[in-house]
C-alpha cells in the first residue's frame, strides 16, 4: 500500500468523521446539504456539502478515488495547491448546480474528486487505471469518458439521483485552476531556466555534483509508488547521460522533492 500524503489523509478522516456524525445527528446532514437556490441564506453549504454522503457506498467510492489519485498529485503540486484544487473543484460543483439544477439538493465529494482525477490525467495521461481491478484504461481515456458521461446524463436527465452538473463543475473549475497555476508559475519557471542557461556550473562540475547529491538524498520510502518509480528513472538517466540530460520540468520535480522530503 502506498503511503498517504498529509492532506489526503486528513480529507479521508474528515469525510469519515462527517459521515458518522451526520448519521448520529441527522439535522447536521439536512443543514449541511447544498440546495443551490437557497445558497444566499445558507452560504456555508457551498463548503459543507462536500463532506456529506448519502450512504456508505457513496462515501466509499469517493474516498477510493481520493485515496488512489490524491497522494501522487499532492506530492506533485504541494499541499497548498492540492487543497486549492480540491476545494475549488467542490465549489465548481456548487456553481454549476446553481446554474443548471438550482432546485436539486447536492451532497458528496464527487466534484472535488473529479477535479483531482482530471489533474491526474493531465499530468500522467498514459498511466493505466484498472477499472474494477481488471480492465486497464489510460487515465486520459477515463477522464474523457467521465466528462462525456456527465455531460450526456446532465443534459438528458438520466440517472436523476446523481449530480452530473456538479461533476462537470468540478472538472471545469479544476481545469481552470491548473491552467491559472501554470500561468502563475510561468515567471518563476522562466527565471529558473534563465539561471540554468546564464549561470552554468563551473569547470569542475561542482554545481552538478551538488545537485546530484541532493537528488540522491531523496527518501524514496516516503514517496507515492509511482513518484518513486519516476525518481528512480530520473536518477538512472543522470547516471547514464549526466544531469544536463534532464529537462527543466524533470529538474524542478527532483528539486521540489529534495525540499519536501
CATH class of the largest domain: Mainly Alpha
Globally, the shape reads: elongated
Strand percentage lies at under 5%
For the record, the CATH architecture of the largest domain stands as: Up-down Bundle
CATH topology of the largest domain: Rhomboid-like fold
| Number of discrete helical segments | 11
Distance between the termini: 19 Å
Tally of discrete structural domains = 2
* Helix proportion: 55-70%
CATH H level, superfamily name of the largest domain: Rhomboid-like
Name the quaternary structure.
Answer: single chain
Provide the residue-averaged pLDDT.
82
As residue ranges, the low-confidence spans are 197-205
Main pleated-sheet profile: 2 strands, antiparallel
Total number of beta strands: 2
Order of helices and strands: HHHHHHEEHHHHH
Structural class: mainly alpha
Strand order of the largest sheet: 1-2
Radius of gyration of CA atoms, rounded to a whole number: 21 Å
Task: Summarize the entry for a quick read.
The protein folds into two domains: 6-181, Rhomboid-like fold; 200-260, no CATH class.
Amino acid at each position: 500500500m502506498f503511503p498517504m500524503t498529509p492532506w489526503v489523509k486528513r480529507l479521508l478522516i474528515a469525510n469519515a468523521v462527517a459521515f458518522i456524525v451526520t448519521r448520529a445527528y441527522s439535522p447536521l446532514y439536512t443543514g449541511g446539504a447544498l440546495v443551490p437556490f437557497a445558497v444566499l441564506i445558507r452560504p456555508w453549504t457551498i463548503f459543507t456539502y462536500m463532506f456529506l454522503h448519502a450512504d456508505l457506498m457513496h462515501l466509499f467510492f469517493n474516498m477510493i478515488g481520493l485515496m488512489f489519485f490524491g497522494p501522487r498529485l499532492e506530492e506533485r503540486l504541494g499541499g497548498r495547491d492540492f487543497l486549492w484544487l480540491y476545494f475549488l473543484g467542490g465549489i465548481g460543483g456548487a456553481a454549476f448546480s446553481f446554474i443548471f439544477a438550482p432546485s436539486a439538493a447536492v451532497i458528496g465529494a464527487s466534484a472535488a474528486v473529479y477535479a483531482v482525477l482530471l489533474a491526474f490525467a493531465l499530468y500522467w495521461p498514459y498511466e493505466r487505471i484498472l477499472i474494477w481491478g481488471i480492465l486497464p484504461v489510460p487515465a486520459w481515456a477515463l477522464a474523457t469518458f467521465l466528462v462525456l458521461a456527465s455531460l450526456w446524463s446532465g443534459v438528458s436527465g438520466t440517472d436523476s439521483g446523481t449530480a452530473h452538473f456538479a461533476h462537470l463543475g468540478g472538472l471545469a473549475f479544476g481545469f481552470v485552476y491548473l491552467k491559472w497555476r501554470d500561468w502563475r508559475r510561468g515567471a518563476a519557471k522562466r527565471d529558473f531556466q534563465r539561471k540554468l542557461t546564464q549561470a552554468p556550473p563551473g569547470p569542475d562540475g561542482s554545481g552538478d555534483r551538488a545537485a546530484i547529491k541532493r537528488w540522491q538524498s531523496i527518501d524514496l520510502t516516503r514517496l507515492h509508488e509511482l513518484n518513486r518509480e519516476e525518481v528512480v528513472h530520473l536518477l538512472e538517466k543522470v547516471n547514464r547521460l549526466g544531469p544536463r540530460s534532464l529537462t527543466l520540468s524533470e529538474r524542478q520535480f527532483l528539486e521540489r522533492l529534495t525540499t519536501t522530503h
